[in-house]
Design goal:
It is a single chain. By secondary structure, the chain is of the alpha+beta class. It has 4 domains: about 100 residues, DNA polymerase, domain 1; about 50 residues, 5' to 3' exonuclease, C-terminal subdomain (DNA polymerase, domain 1); about 180 residues, 2-Layer Sandwich (Beta Polymerase, domain 2), CATH 3.30.460.10; about 60 residues, Beta Polymerase, domain 3. Helices cover about 40% and strands about 15% of the residues. Helix 2 crosses helix 4, helix 2 packs across helix 5 and helix 6 crosses helix 7. The longest helix is centred in the middle third of the chain and has 18 residues. It binds 2'-deoxyguanosine-5'-triphosphate (DGT) and magnesium ion. Gap-filling polymerase involved in repair of DNA double-strand breaks by non-homologous end joining (NHEJ).
Length: about 400
């Protein structure tokens, strides 16, 4: 081994929020294997195991080199016996039998296919699987009563399981920006989720909306959604007031302005202008570049081919009728009061594991409670204010990690 290699390894910190985790890294063979086991654990009601596999994968993603032998893992955190067995097998044989068995198992493939339906979670999928329903087509034939979300999920199954490109995310961004500026001039929208972390594709597009005059954002979601519906952009939407369920271990009663936090789960109808070249740049567009955001993604000028879609409608749904003129895209909208914007931005940029690690760090290392709304200091018994993500990291005693480093 190289001199100093072990020392370097000993310095890898154990919380993902203490490290930079880039999108592209050196250990994809190992992390792909661990991710399958994580996914399987999550699908079979084994959250604890799922998190353990996710943490191990995230650790490997943050390493600056490729792991080629077990000796390189000495002293690294987050790697339990099970993970080490998996890694050892992959390093020695190229594959791990447990991973391959899982990948090919009927239960895993069925649960994946069923949870691939918008509106279907792991519990529902598992119940259906036990009834012999293994595919979306099975479900359709079963005559089960489905809620509105699940009906839309089945109807647009193929579209919603095809990755959303950055160009499509930007096109949706321009529509949302138009909607927002029509109903509330001065409101600001920011691209969040995986695309803010630099991903080229996503399963959905996430936006955060706010207004510099606190209070103006109240009731904004309903107006935005009405405008989008009137323009025929929405195939499905469900707007919820914030239920504040996320911080189970948080202070029992949040301040009353929390009630204003609104969220809309939607499915957009996005024109694909098949064969037409669309210019992405709008000089007046400022979405994804928020004044609070000191690390904006430069909106570079480029021209893109908007996909030409092959209609491969597996379940023979109405998708064939709109062949190539539009596609369905999952879009999440969140409205936040200005004073909570930084917390919302940090909380909705992800990744899910990075968020989980931030909250775990806050509780266990700092006796604080972090949510997408606030940071509460249990020792001082008070909420701490912050006007940027950098300030929140500083309050948590962490070095700042930019969005592109949060791909844990
Ligand atoms: P994707 O869409 O699969 O490409 O990847 P992400 O990272 O955009 O994942 P997504 O869209 O499920 O969620 C975006 C981030 O928003 C996620 O990393 C954590 C956060 N998030 C999602 N759902 C909730 C929620 O119900 N409450 C809170 N506070 N945050 C959420
Ligand atoms: Mg997303």
């Amino acid at each position: 081994a190289e001199p100093g290699a072990e020392l370097q390894v000993a310095l890898v910190p154990s919380y993902a929020c203490q490290r930079h985790t880039p999108l592209l890294h050196h250990n994809t063979v190992l992390t792909d294997a661990l991710s399958i086991l994580a996914e399987n654990a999550e699908l079979t009601d084994n959250e604890g195991r799922g998190v353990a596999f996710r943490r191990a994968a995230a650790l490997l993603k943050s390493l600056p080199h490729e792991i080629r032998g077990m000796e390189q893992l000495k002293g690294l955190p987050c790697l339990g016996d099970h993970c080490l067995r998996v890694i050892k097998e992959v390093l020695e044989d190229g594959t791990c039998s447990e991973v391959e068995t899982t990948r090919q198992s009927g239960q895993f493939t069925a649960l994946k296919a069923l949870t691939g339906i918008f509106g279907v979670g792991a519990k529902t999928a598992d119940r259906w699987f036990r009834e012999g329903i293994h595919t979306p087509s099975d479900l359709q034939r079963s005559g089960h009563t489905l809620n509105r979300a699940q009906q839309a999920g089945l109807q647009y199954y193929d579209d919603l399981n095809r990755p959303v490109t950055k160009a499509e995310a930007d096109a949706i961004g321009r529509i949302v920006e138009r909607a927002v500026s029509e109903v509330l001039p001065g409101a600001e929208i920011t691209l969040i989720g995986g695309f803010r972390r630099g991903k080229n594709t996503g399963h959905d597009v996430d936006f955060l909306i706010t207004h510099p005059d606190e209070g103006k954002e109240e009731g904004l979601m309903v107006k935005v959604v009405s405008w989008l519906e009137a323009q025929d952009f929405l195939l499905y939407q469900k707007t919820t007031r914030n239920s504040y369920l996320e911080s189970k271990d948080g202070p029992a009663r949040p301040p009353s302005n929390m009630d204003r936090f609104e969220r809309c789960f939607s499915i957009f109808r996005l024109s694909t202008h098949n064969g037409v070249r669309m210019t992405e740049t709008d000089p007046h567009s400022h979405f994804s570049v928020h004044p609070h955001d000191s690390h904006p993604t430069p909106q570079t000028c480029r021209t893109v081919d908007v996909l030409s879609r092959e209609d491969s409608s597996e379940i023979g749904q109405p998708q064939s009728s709109h062949s190539q003129s539009w596609r369905a895209v999952r879009v999440d909208l969140v409205v936040s009061p200005y004073s909570q914007f930084s917390f919302a931005l940090l909380g909705w940029t992800g990744s899910k594991l990075f968020e989980r690690e931030l909250r775990r760090w806050a509780v266990h290392e700092k006796a604080m409670t972090l949510s997408s709304h606030t940071l509460y200091d249990s020792k001082q018994r008070q909420y701490l204010r912050a006007n940027s993500e950098e300030e929140i990291f500083a309050l948590l005693g962490l070095e700042y990690v930019p969005p592109c480093g949060r791909n844990a």
